[in-house]
């Protein structure tokens, strides 16, 4: 079939298999261009199919020749209906890894469930014995709690008072005011259950109990801080409470896995266009100003540049892992540079529908958004008939 983007609000209903494969190839080429990293050898990536998790899997495999197991929750294709992008990304990743002689297998299912944890443990036992790195990179709006059976939903709301600020509809470029009512206690609790650290801790406990964590293994989860303009809706909002919980969980995991010397870290990453971040009000306007400013300074990065730098310049340098005063790894250092943030603050004040194309990188935002679904890549023939029924080699 000929596959075109079909936009519905903040999502695209279609994905292009060849474009997703091109995206994976581009990321592999980037990692290879930066040279080998003396990094992990056997890696489990939870949330491995898109965004930072996919970049972590690619960096492990093509930066350090690591064997990888990827866990994700994606929709497979059906005749005449495309799969989700993460499905095609993972198919392309496995093919590239296998061609390079690297072990790569995947598990498609709900990572919050006991069943998927057990399936993962069984696969590690059968094929790898143990893993020395576990990346935890889930982003989900819902979590079915494996003990209570309750389905929790996260929300993106401020806490304490109503929040009003500028936002942009990145499809139209229309800048407007948005007002968001504050969360109630139930909202806060639910968001922490979904996006906090409980499931990460459950994974690490299950892996350790099964004996599949190597002595001195490392585990990393991803967090975000960001600037003052997004604080009310992000870091001081419901999602921020979940990130506080995630960050606190790192210390608990390190403590509970002392006997095998496993260390848990949170890495604070840069704001990037993903399906998740596009749905948060205010953030797309911030990102469009951020992209413009960082590109002008020559320090713009996408997921792959961020994770390659995380591995190469933070995690696997041969020296102690540098952290901030709260024990977090900071790879958002360039985003948070004072000169960058001062420029964005000034731009924020003046941003309107009329000037955003000029002062912000709306085109870059749109391009990245299309790229998430495999559209807009050079070297892909979008007019050609494409087979949507692409299998992931290790699945079924
Ligand atoms: P993403 O949406 O690109 O990736 C999410 C991954 O989780 C996908 O592989 C998806 O299949 C998987 N997933 C979701 N629900 C699942 C489930 N129930 N079972 C198994 N897999 C499931 O998200 P992104 O942006 O890469 O986020 C990853 C982490 O990075 C999150 O913790 C996010 O908060 C954090 N982060 C994101 C930033 C951004 O600007 N996008 C900035 C800093 C941190
Ligand atoms: Na991810």
How many strand segments?
13
Strand order of the largest sheet: 5-4-3-6-11-12-13
Counting helices, strands and paired strands, the structural category is alpha/beta
CATH topology of the domain at 7-159 and 186-274 and 302-332: Rossmann fold
List all distinct small molecules, including ions and cofactors, that are bound in this structure. 1,4-dihydronicotinamide adenine dinucleotide, sodium ion
CATH class of the domain at 7-159 and 186-274 and 302-332 equals Alpha Beta
Kindly report how far apart the N and C termini lie. 24 Å
Query: What can be said about the biggest beta sheet?
Result: 7 strands, parallel
Write the element-wise H/E pattern from the N-terminal end onward. EEHEHEHEHEEEEEHHEHHEHHHEHHH
- The low-confidence runs, each spanning 5 or more residues with pLDDT under 50, are none
Characterise the protein shown here.
It is an enzyme of class 1 (oxidoreductase). Substrate binds at residue 224. GO terms for molecular function: enoyl-[acyl-carrier-protein] reductase (NADH) activity; NAD binding; trans-2-enoyl-CoA reductase (NADH) activity. It catalyses: a 2,3-saturated acyl-[ACP] + NAD(+) = a (2E)-enoyl-[ACP] + NADH + H(+); a 2,3-saturated acyl-CoA + NAD(+) = a (2E)-enoyl-CoA + NADH + H(+). Keywords: Fatty acid biosynthesis, Fatty acid metabolism, Lipid biosynthesis, Lipid metabolism, NAD, Oxidoreductase. This protein is α/β, with parallel strands linked by helices. The chain has a domain at 7-159 and 186-274 and 302-332: NAD(P)-binding Rossmann-like Domain (Rossmann fold, 3-Layer(aba) Sandwich). 42% of the residues lie in helices and 16% in strands. It contains 14 helices and 13 strands. The chain has helices at residues 17-33, 51-64, 85-99, 114-128, 185-195, 198-209, 228-231, 238-256, 275-278, 283-296, 303-315, 338-350, 356-359, 362-372; strands at residues 7-8, 11-12, 42-46, 67-72, 104-108, 131-136, 142-144, 151-153, 163-169, 174-180, 213-223, 263-268, 329-330. A 7-stranded parallel β-sheet has the order 5-4-3-6-11-12-13, with helices on both faces. Strands 1-2 form a two-stranded antiparallel sheet. Strand 9 and strand 10 (174-180) form a beta hairpin. Helix 2 (51-64) runs parallel beside helix 3 (85-99), helix 6 packs parallel to helix 8 (238-256) and helix 10 packs across helix 14 (362-372). The chain is globular, with a radius of gyration of 20 Å. It starts with 6 loop residues before the first strand and ends in a 24-residue tail after the last helix. The relative contact order is 0.16. The model has no long low-confidence stretch (mean pLDDT 97).
């Amino acid at each position: 079939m000929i596959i075109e983007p079909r936009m519905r609000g903040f999502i695209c209903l279609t994905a292009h298999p060849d474009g997703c494969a091109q995206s994976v190839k581009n990321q592999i080429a980037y990692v290879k261009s930066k040279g080998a990293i003396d990094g992990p050898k056997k890696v489990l990536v939870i949330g491995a199919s898109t965004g930072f998790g996919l970049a972590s899997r690619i960096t492990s495999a093509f930066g350090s020749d690591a064997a990888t197991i990827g866990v994700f929750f994606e929709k497979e294709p059906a005749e005449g209906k495309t799969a989700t992008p993460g499905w095609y990304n993972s198919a392309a990743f496995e093919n590239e890894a296998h061609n390079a002689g690297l072990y790569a297998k995947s598990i498609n299912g709900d990572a919050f469930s006991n069943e998927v944890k057990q399936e993962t443990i069984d696969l590690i036992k059968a094929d790898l014995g143990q893993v020395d790195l576990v990346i935890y990179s889930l982003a989900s709006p819902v979590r079915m709690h494996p003990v209570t059976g309750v389905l929790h939903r996260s929300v993106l709301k401020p806490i304490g008072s109503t929040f009003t600020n500028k936002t942009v509809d990145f499809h139209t470029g229309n800048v407007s005011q948005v007002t968001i009512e504050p969360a109630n206690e139930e909202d806060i609790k639910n968001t922490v259950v979904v996006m906090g650290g409980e499931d990460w801790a459950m994974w690490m406990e299950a892996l350790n109990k099964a004996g599949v964590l190597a002595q001195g293994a490392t585990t990393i989860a991803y967090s975000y801080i960001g600037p003052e303009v997004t604080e009310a809706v992000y870091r001081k909002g419901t999602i921020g409470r979940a990130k506080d919980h995630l960050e606190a969980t790192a210390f608990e995991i390190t403590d509970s896995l002392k006997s095998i010397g496993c260390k848990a870290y949170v890495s604070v990453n840069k704001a990037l266009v993903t399906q998740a971040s596009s749905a948060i009000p205010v953030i797309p306007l911030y990102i469009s100003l951020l992209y413009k400013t960082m590109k002008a300074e020559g320090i713009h990065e996408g997921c792959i540049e961020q994770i390659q730098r995380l591995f190469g310049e933070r995690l696997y340098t041969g020296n102690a892992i540098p952290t901030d005063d709260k024990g977090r790894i900071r790879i958002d250092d360039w985003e948070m540079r004072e000169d960058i943030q001062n420029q964005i603050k000034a731009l924020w004040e003046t941003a309107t529908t009329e000037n955003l194309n000029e002062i912000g990188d709306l085109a870059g935002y749109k391009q990245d958004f299309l790229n998430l679904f495999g559209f807009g890549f050079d070297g892909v023939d979008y007019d050609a008939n494409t087979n949507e029924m692409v299998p992931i080699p290790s699945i079924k």
